[in-house]
Fold this protein.
Amino acid sequence: MPRCSSPFPSWSTQMIHAVIPIATPTAAVQIINHNGGPSWLVLVAAGAAGSALTMLARVTSVPSEVAAHDRRIADIDADLDRYVADEYVRLAFDLREIRFPGGEDSQAPQREVSRACAIAVVRSTQLYRDEENARIREMREMVAPEGVGHRAWRLLARRPIAALTTPDRASRVLDKWQTLVPSYGGEEKIVGLIDPRDRTIAKVAPELDANTDKPN
């Protein structure tokens, strides 16, 4: 019984067998040239194999990139947590020094204490606000290049992009800071303005207008 001949030239069959398992431009070109394939197919095969290699390398790098991003997010969260704890301790020392500049028996005047404590709390809160914003921006810029492959892998692996957990925990600490400023006489307005976490020009405008309207 006669064998059925393939509708494809012998060099094309060998090229397919070379490209599929090996997928290298060099192997495909060598097979085509060796079997007398047309030159235009050499370029097509080399380009296709090169694209396949690039895609393969990209796909296989997705899991490691996702894992690296997740580790970095965890590190950012831990660093921010330590920042709040360190700032809490530092502010406690500063406020104690403000109240008792010369020791337990040398308490400063209440009006000076109120103003100095307000300044210290504002500074610590602003520092944390800026640190948190910087860390959030860093995290967003890091995961921004993640493409369809990353999103698909995260979906399949059930590994969504993690959110920072420290800001929620830090809110309790920062809320406590706002209560550490003693009021004195007309200093209640200072106490009401010391939380800069959501401060905007629109929110401080009434105070600015009130100060502008006052006679010199």
